[in-house]
Write a structure and sequence with these properties.
The chain folds into three domains: 53 residues, no CATH class; 155 residues, P-loop containing nucleotide triphosphate hydrolases (Rossmann fold, 3-Layer(aba) Sandwich); 75 residues, no CATH class. The protein is elongated and about 90 Å long. The relative contact order is 0.11. The chain has 19 helices and eleven strands. Helix 4 packs across helix 15. Helix content is 46%, strand content 11%.
């Protein structure tokens, strides 16, 4: 059905006293066929019932709604050279207006909803980076909305404790900071013993280096990933590196390189386990005091820009908001969004995508509560 035909059908139905709010193309046809022809001014010829078409990818408006359409536009703008935020917003406004214009004819409240939606649009953060060792600036990159602030803090040699939910992009953002500073990136996960940080002397008397040792002595950004899952006594050996210029290693005292930077990533604030992160430990207050603690949340605009399938991304975000509003113990991270190709390519149905990525073994009561909340929100 073409846009012109759709408009003529809607006009005829409204003129005959019918309602078209939320009606699909199939429902419009059914409403039109059921009308009294004498009440239809200049009614168009009835469109023949279309033959069943082969299964195709669901349109963004099918279940992802306006958020999915916005995601598609944003990603296309990002793909262009030198993307412009203003150009993207202008394009989004035009498309959003065309999507809701017909509904506005039947109900003026739809226009108010459109205005509110446009005002709430969040576009991903774009940065152009000029590395210290290069005279040439990089092409604009899509980054987390916290990137600029974290880059400034690290540049001032502040020790960062970045706390946030699983899958928020903390590690990747830290890698981008190291790249922006033009330095090497080193990382260590949870540790149980101090030698995992400091290294050790082997049976032949040779020193076995660690990622921390390399960053401290040669320069680089050292990421202590999942620090809140580490043993508190092992982390105390890290304290000297955070507050002093020298550090005792098994191979002797070493002076910190001028380009040594330290960042710690965690799911908690270091005060012990939570309902979602039960294996986290309570760390020593002296260790926590050496950090600036910054909260790092999900960036939904960044998700939409990077998502393989904008429609699936919008669905995931709706369920995440519902889970937060209901205070459910579910982690719905961007990792679920990045599996969107399975939905886009019809590898998995919507129900299976939800079951495998959102519900993940939750009880029936929890699932029904979540589904009903999403429906009410729509």
């Amino acid at each position: 059905m073409t846009n012109q035909e759709r408009k003529e059908y809607r006009t005829a139905i409204i003129a005959a006293g019918g309602s078209i709010i939320g009606a699909s193309d199939a429902e419009l046809l059914e409403l039109f066929h059921n009308l009294d022809p004498r009440r239809i001014p200049h009614a168009p010829a009835a469109e023949p019932t279309p033959k069943p078409a082969p299964a195709a990818e669901p349109t963004p408006a099918a279940s992802g709604g306006l958020d999915a359409i916005i995601g598609d536009i944003v990603r296309k703008e990002i793909a262009k050279s030198g993307p412009s935020i203003e150009d993207a917003k202008y394009e989004i406004t035009n498309v959003a207006s065309s999507v809701l214009c017909d509904f506005a004819e039947a109900n003026r409240k739809a226009q108010a909803a459109l205005d509110k939606k446009i005002a709430s649009i969040k576009l991903p953060t774009l940065v152009t980076i000029k590395k210290p060792a290069s005279k040439k600036a990089s092409a604009p990159k899509v980054v987390h909305y916290m990137f600029k602030e974290l880059l400034d803090l690290v540049s001032y040699k502040e020790n960062l404790w970045i706390t946030g939910p699983a899958g928020a992009g903390k590690t990747y953002c830290t890698e981008q900071i190291a790249d922006a500073l033009g330095i090497d990136f080193f990382s260590t996960g949870r540790v149980s013993n101090s030698f995992e940080l400091l290294g050790y002397m082997d049976a032949n008397g040779g020193y076995v280096e660690t990622a921390f040792y390399k960053a401290f002595t040669r320069g680089g950004l050292f990421l202590f990933d999942e620090i809140d899952a580490s043993a508190p006594e092992a982390i105390t050996s890290f304290n000297a590196a955070l507050s002093g210029s020298t550090m005792a290693f098994p191979c002797g005292m070493k002076k910190a390189h001028k380009d040594f930077f330290a960042v710690a990533n965690a799911n908690t604030s270091g005060n012990g386990a939570s309902r979602q992160y039960v294996s986290r430990t309570q760390l020593d207050g002296a260790s926590l005091d050496r950090f600036i603690m910054v909260h790092f949340d999900y960036d939904e605009a960044l998700e939409l820009a990077l998502a393989p399938c904008a429609e699936w991304c919008a669905i995931v975000q709706k369920y995440r908001r519902a889970a937060d509003e209901l205070n459910l113990n579910l982690i719905i991270s961007p990792r679920a969004v990045m599996r969107g190709a399975l939905y886009r390519d019809n590898v998995l149905s919507l129900e299976k995508m939800l079951d495998y990525n959102i519900f993940k073994g939750a009880g029936k009561d929890t699932i029904n509560k979540l589904k009903n909340h999403v429906k009410e929100a729509v």
